[in-house]
Amino acid sequence: MWFLLFALALCLIGYGIVHLRHRTPSSMDSSIDTFSQARQALAPTKPRRR
Fold first, then answer.
1. What pLDDT was estimated at residue 38?
2. What per-residue confidence (pLDDT) applies to 41?
3. How many other CB atoms are found less than 10 A from the CB of residue 3?
4. Terminal CA-to-CA distance of the chain, rounded, Å?
5. Which of 22, 29, 30, 43 has most Cβ atoms within 10 angstroms of its Cβ?
6. How far apart are the C-alpha atoms of 16 and 10, rounded to whole Å?
């Protein structure tokens, strides 16, 4: 029975690690960075050569 509890504990720890690593950033700086990247993609500062 103890091995099932051990396996469950390992699964919960693994889930916690994956969840924390792949969560969406929520700070003010991350929002500004995301906006800046989108703006840069729409209007790059360097002119393109054709």
1. 87
2. 84
3. 7
4. 69
5. 30
6. 10
State the residue for tokens 């969560």.
23
Sign of CA dihedral 34, 36, 37, 42: positive
Give SS3 for 50: coil
**The two three-digit tokens of residue 29, written as one number:** 């700086």
Give per-residue pLDDT as tens, 3-48.
999 999 999 999 999 999 988 777 788 888 888 888 888 876 666 6
- Tell me what pLDDT residue 35 has: 87
Separation between Cα atoms, residue 16 and residue 2, nearest integer Å: 21
